[in-house]
Amino acid sequence: MELSEFHVQLELRIDWSELDYFKHVNNVSFFKYIQSARVNYWERIGLNRLHSEKNVGVILASTQCDFRKPLTYPGRVVILSAVYFIKSSSFGIRHVLLNETGEVSAEAGDVLVMYDFNNHGKILIPHSIRMAIEELENKKF
After folding, report:
1. Single pTM value for the model
2. Pair 13, 32: CB distance under 8 Å
3. Peptide linkage before 126 cis (omega within 30 of 0)
4. What string of DSSP letters covers the chain?
């Protein structure tokens, strides 16, 4: 995906506690940044509201990250996020993590499954969530 295809952005401050022995951001912290971006995306499409009202949300089925360049302290990281597929009960989000100079530090991906926490099982993606994603991404899936 081209950077212009990412419509959701989150900027985070890098904390000194996120460094490893080699004085760059530890790989575990990259996953914390990705999690923050994932939750930011959920909030934008109304999943938090859906969960609080109906106890329906998503579970993380898969996550992965490819590291390109280290992040350092002090600094900031910008995470760009975009949905790249929607199926009947799951969807995928790609993330690009940029350092302060705009270079790609990592590329990541998540697969999320819609889940009914009342009945303990996966469900179809609600029409309202699918429409919110399509509006945010400015495309049909």
Report:
1. 0.95
2. no
3. no
4. --GGG--EEEEEEEPGGGB-TTSSB-HHHHHHHHHHHHHHHHHHHTHHHHHHHHSEEEEEEEEEEEE-S---SSEEEEEEEEEEEE-SSEEEEEEEEE-TTS-EEEEEEEEEEEEETTTTEE-PPPHHHHHHHHHHHTS--
Task: Output the domain CATH number for residue 126.
Answer: 3.10.129.10
- Record the tokens describing residue 42, joined without a space: 């959920």
What is the extent of the structural domain holding 24? 3-137
55-108 residue pLDDT tens: 999 999 999 999 999 999 999 999 999 999 999 999 999 999 999 999 999 999
Count of domains for the chain = 1
